[in-house]
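Batch manifest, entry 17 of 40.
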Amino acid sequence: MSLETLNPCELEIDLFCKGLRIDPSCTLEEDARLFARTRAGLGSGLELVIPGQGTMKDVWVNTPVEEDFAQVSPYLLVKRGGEYAILDERGPSYAVRIPHEPRWYTAKTSRGHDMCRIGVLQGTYLGIYIDNSCGFWYYPTPLNCQFCTTGANVGVNEVADKDKDEVAEVCQAAKDESDITFVHFNAGFHPDDTDLEKAAPYVKTVKEKVGLLTGVQVSPTSNLWKYDWLIDLGTDHFSFCYEFHNPEYFARYLPGKEKLIGQKKFFRAMEYTAKKLGKGTVSGEIITGVEPIEDTLKAIDYITGVGAFPTVCIFRPTVGADMESVPPPRYEDMQVVMKHMFDACRRNGIPIGMAPNIEVSIIVNPEDAAYLADRAPGYYWYRTKLAVMRFGARLYFAPQLRPREVKADSRDPEPYRAPAAT
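Output type: structure tokens
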């Protein structure tokens, strides 16, 4: 890699790959959000913002700081004159911002829980784990995904069983103070195929009491009619974490998903919901830096080809995971992946970055990767089209961010069940 100054996305990628050391001059206990080791552990780093260049966007990144590889990073965070900067021991330096911890994090819910034990910010959106754990961890021989630490985190650093009205209180506080527009509900695996049923009351309650865009990320179901039910309840986005496109890597590192779900079920659910909700409203989530890069590029082409957008997470060997000792990937390889991600979205006309104020800090967002794209005519046409669409999207999203009545019943999906074949 050149020692020339990196653009914001290049720096984001390299921070994911190399991590960040903290200089004693930093006062993060006063200036930063808490390090929230929840769910898979991917949000366990330091939230920071790399200012955009020119008219291009800022880049949010949840930077690894606790992992072993981060302790030998060439990057050092320092505080000088009240401002933060990242110094690269190889030469360049970069001004960054550290988002403050919001007041609502330590406010109490009506049931007496700290709000940050109900939900946490990851970038500018609110993430809420609606379950008390993931079933993969509780088989006689655990079947958990090898990169994940959910079994060690959920119910420890957050409230295990979350009341839907308490969740609405946290969503309202985050909307009022942090100006969030999107809440993401996530749950672990259940062998009884009731994951969408668990999400349903949360989606309806937030839609009716708060007024936010809502996303759901749970294990896929073969009962595709359940997605129709969740859509009528107010779900705006579904995400499907199938992690690895190469079937051998899927089986090796995701033993529970291989044995109890299967890769094809993820594909069917993604294709169905992308068609139902429209292009750019569903995401396929993958990890890059473990399987061969050629397979990751195929995953990106497949996801964008069905009308979804790729959320590509650079592999992070999180503390306590089975893959903790696996080294992070090379910057050069990850740059190739992220450039391909933006190009695939452009080729397939995926409308990225439409929803207001959603910055996901644990991945390289497709819009971030615009910094990597070749400045050819197709790039300028795509960016111009996105800008026009984004202007119109403001009118569409405005009513979606107000509380509204939801007529569908969150307790009963049966009216949506497809009739039996005769």
